[in-house]
User: Fold Glutathione S-transferase from Photobacterium ganghwense.
Amino acid sequence: MKIYETAMTPSCKRVSIFLKELGVEVDRIALNVREGDNLQPAFSSKSVNGKVPLLELDDGTTICESVAICRYFDEAVENDLALFGRTAVEKAKVEMWHRVVEFQGLYAAFQAFRNITAIYSDRENCVAEWGQESKERVGAFLPLLDKQLAESPYVVSDRFTIVDITAFIFVNFAINGLAFSVLEQYPNIARWFETVAARPAFQ
Assistant:
């Protein structure tokens, strides 16, 4: 099997960190999305959404969307990490917080960056005003995340889950991609961020 990726992108980082947590090695094929490698017929014929990452199994089955890829490996590889949760309640809370962090945090950050910088203006309509609105939404979400992390060591509970991977990528993107002073303004996020950053899979 192999994974098509642009290693620097947040979605590809999520899969890479998840696999490191599981201790899984998978062959990688590097694509340059800025140059449009993912738009070529050879790749788009394999991918439903035309984006990276894309997992291709030995039988030719392909899976796109980073969380779907993570779910595949969580089920396919024997492990006791329960990164998607253990009990029915915990699984539901993982799903709940994962969607919250993705839609209110990471997705808004993507929209802010792409529309403000117009980095992909050669293939999508970039609206600067929507970029600024999205950035404001990122700013509005950070206090909610900080409040949650005041109540538990990790985003969902006292255990590390996939939500922490996604939230870490979001916070890192907010800092480096959107110039938010997250660690200076939000002490609970800063404490959690330092803890997560020290995990071997994040090195």
Summary: DSSP finds eight helices and four strands in the chain. The helical segments are 10-22, 41-44, 66-76, 88-117, 128-151, 162-176, 182-185, 187-197.
